[in-house]
Amino acid sequence: MDLRETFATNLRRLRNSKGWSQDELALETKISRSYLSQLEKGVYHVSIKIIGRLADKLEVEPEEFLKTVKRARAK
User: Is the per-residue pLDDT at 64 higher than 70?
Assistant: First the structure.
């Protein structure tokens, strides 16, 4: 998984854990819903400024967006 995909996966997970729609998060962070959608799909690169806004509104540390989730292996 590349970093853009990791970021996209974590952004969706963190947004969903707050129970927010893309529209709600976009409004809170003052970015367009279209741009947010593209970030969640891993289409666009994200700036540090936007990571900061997202982290602030989602109440997480910025590094949460780059953590890889280890998947359990089937036995």
Answer: yes
